[in-house]
Specification:
With about 100 residues, the chain is an all-alpha fold. Helices cover about 50% and strands about 0% of the residues.
Length: about 100
């Protein structure tokens, strides 16, 4: 069985753990490729190596997570992890 935010929305511990691993994976892969951070250039430049790496690394991460972790990260999780942002999947704090 594949796990996703959609199929298991209440399993917050799983999503937090997978997101942290995903964020660390992106950090490591960017370092391996010599693309540690977007230090020079225009952040909106589609030809900058950092921006060029985005699609390829997101596809690679999704493939790795599906095959090795039995988990399908959402597009939001992938983009947030790539850009080292805060975890987008959080439990609701709503009360009735």
């Amino acid at each position: 069985m594949m796990y996703t935010v959609i199929t298991h929305p209440e399993d917050h511990a799983l999503h937090v753990r997978e997101y942290r691993l995903l964020r660390d994976w992106f950090r490591r892969r960017l370092h391996e490729l010599g693309i540690d951070a977007m230090q020079d250039g225009d952040p909106m430049d589609p030809h900058h190596p950092f921006n060029q790496a985005y699609d390829a690394l997101c596809k690679e991460a999704e493939r790795v997570w599906r095959s090795e972790r039995n988990y399908v990260p959402s597009p939001l999780q992938l983009s947030h992890a790539f850009f080292q942002m805060e975890d987008p999947i959080r439990p609701d704090q709503l009360t009735a």
